[in-house]
Amino acid sequence: MKIRKADPATILLLPNTENPNILQKLQNMPKADPRALGVKWHIQFPSGAVLVKCNNEEQANKLREIACSSGFQEKKQTFKQLELQIYNVPITTTSEQIAEDVEKHFGERPQEENSSRTAHPTSPMSPLRPSHALWNCNKN
Asked: For residue 123, which of 113, 134, 131, 115 has the smallest C-alpha distance?
């Protein structure tokens, strides 16, 4: 299941040897006014990197341009396909109910994976049954 989603309005700026403190450098730049760039919030990490959330993609792109022209690099968002295993689900719960709960929690509709996996042979969950579901979420 993909848990993290691409957010074009969020930027992670990485420090460099010339400017180890990105936030301080940006605060000293008149063209990097947080109100004009629609900065909703920011988080500064001990490394000097700064995660910035803007109101929209257009404002984030302006910040990207300013940061790039100042010598900062943006860390591109990467994603991994993750699996989600659900345990201790009451036997009366339907696959549809599980799918609805996963969609409500993660914002993505899961698709049941056809798997021949079973739990540990001594486990009360063996063989695989509805109370031990394996799901894979793809949003395409």
From this structure: 131
Q: What is the 3-state secondary structure (H, E, C) of the chain?
A: CCCCCCCCCEEEEECCCCCCCHHHHHHCCHHHCCCCCCEEEEEECCCCCEEEEECCHHHHHHHHHHHHHCCCEECCCCCCCCCEEECCCCCCCCHHHHHHHHHHHHCCCEEECCCCCCCCCCCCCCCCCCCCEEEEECCC
Residue that the structure tokens 């940006």 belong to: 26
Whole-prediction pTM value? 0.54
What is the rounded CA–CA span in Å between residue 46 and residue 63?
A: 21
Which domains does the chain carry? 10-74 (3.30.70), 84-137 (no CATH)
- pLDDT, tens digit (0-9, with 9 covering 90-100), for 32-88: 899 989 999 999 999 889 999 999 999 999 999 998 888 888 888 766 665 677 788
- Considering only CA atoms, which of 113, 115, 112, 110 is closest in space to residue 137? 110
The tokens 């792109």 sit on which residue?
A: 61
